[in-house]
Every structure is written in structure tokens, then in C-alpha cells.
Amino acid sequence: MSNSAIITAAGSGQRMNSSKKKQFIEIGGKPILLHTLDKFIQTQCFDSIIITCPASDVVFLEDLLFDKFDYDRNQISIIPGGKRRQDSVYNALKIIDETTEIVAIHDSVRPFVKVSEIVESVELAKKYGAVTLAHPVKNTIKQVENYQVIKTLDRKNLWEIYTPQTFKVKLIKKAHEFVKTKNLTVRDDAELVEIFGKDVYVLEGSSENIKVTNQFDLKIANMILKNRNRTQINADEHGLRKYNE
């Protein structure tokens, strides 16, 4: 049995207020998407990695990955996505090899997921069927309507949801197909499984697994990367394990 990863790269960069799409903005001299892709390659868990993007970006991405950065064409596929994120993921699921057991679905602009977190999510998906990375909410959360507080929520049971979200392939395909029959729009793939009536297991991950969507996030991303590089240099000097593992 094999495993696959789907990386969604359909961001427009509107909230980033940039002419360049956020997944192609560089940090540390390399596009954010490539930092993300490297983590999945480093796990050595995935026989195939599928990147979904707007049809207009396919040729650009092929040139970027295979010509400029020399990634493996045999491992990585780039396909046009759909109108919604869930449509893009479904397009990718349709071309996954039938022998694939587990699929991890990840946002292209979450470049700081740890290799160890991806690996653990794959192992837990084998056991539970559906797993999402997440982190407990730290701030007080209030429900607001028309700029008025309706109520204060108990944060004890509230988690901020990250990716990857990792599933048994048969389960996530059935969930996608079920939701398509209901013509529903969802916020993430875990919600598809919830609607399908199956449980989703939560794996607590690092709060550094941020989604880079605006200029503030970009500043934080550069700080995280610099800190990790310093930590990595220190680890190398002392013969310690890599920080991202």
C-alpha cells in the first residue's frame, strides 16, 4: 500500500496585498510553496505528491519545480484545481492510484509544519481513519453578530485547526462524494468527514504551523525561518537531530 499527499496552491494573494500570489512569495530565497513541498518530501512517506493550482499557473509551476529547482517529475504532479478548495481536492483524489491507503491534504502556505507531525498524522490516520493537526485556542473567543457580542465561548474545548488533514483514501473519497450529492460547501476536508458521520481525531501540533495569508503573517514567517535556521546550525554543530524532525 502507498501514501499520497495533496498540496492546494490556489491562493490569490488579495489579503497579502501583493501582485504575486502568496504561495510564490519568497522567504529565505525560495517560494513558500517549495518550503512546504520540501517537508513532505523529507518525510519519505509519500509515493506521490499532487499540487493543485489554477489552470493558468500549471505551466509556471512546472517550470518552477522541474526546470528551476529540479524536483522529481516522477513523484510530483501538478493539476488544475476547481472553483472551490474542495473541488480541487476532489480532482486530485480522482487521480490517486487505487493502491493508495493514506492521503495527507495540506495548504501550500503552511511551510512550517514539522516533518514529525506529518509522519505521525499518517500513522494515526491508519489507526483512526481521519486526523487533523490542531492547536488549543489560547485567546478568549466571543461569538459576535453585527459587531455585538452574543456570548463568550468556553475555550477549554476550542481548537484552532491546521493542516495536514490526513485520511484513509476510501473514507475521504466517500465523504467528498456524499457532500457532492448534498451540494454543500465546506471549510475543510475534516468537515466533509464530520458531515459524512465519521469521527475526526485531533493531533496537537506546533503553533508555528501558521498559514501565511497577509503581510503580518509574512513577517512572522521570516522570523520563524530565521530562528529555525539558527537552531539547525547549532544542532549541526553539536551533532543533534534536525529541528524540523
Layout of helices and strands, plus pairs?
Layout (H helix, E strand, L loop, with lengths): L1 E7 L17 E2 L2 E2 H12 L4 E6 L4 H11 L7 E5 L4 H11 L4 E8 L7 H14 L1 E7 L4 E5 L2 E6 L5 E10 H14 L6 H7 L5 E4 L10 H23 L8
Helix pairs in contact: 1-4, 5-6
TL;DR?
This protein is an alpha/beta fold and 245 residues long. Helices cover 38% and strands 25% of the residues.
What does this structure look like?
This protein is an alpha/beta fold. It has one domain (2-237): Spore Coat Polysaccharide Biosynthesis Protein SpsA, Chain A, CATH 3.90.550. 38% of the residues lie in helices and 25% in strands. The chain has helices at 32-43, 58-68, 85-95, 115-128, 169-182, 189-195, 215-237; strands at residues 2-8, 26-27, 30-31, 48-53, 76-80, 100-107, 130-136, 141-145, 148-153, 159-168, 201-204. It has a 7-stranded mixed sheet, with helices on both faces. It has a two-stranded antiparallel ribbon with strand order 2-3. A hairpin with a 2-residue loop joins strand 2 and strand 3 (30-31). Helix 1 packs across helix 4. The model has no long low-confidence stretch (mean pLDDT 93).
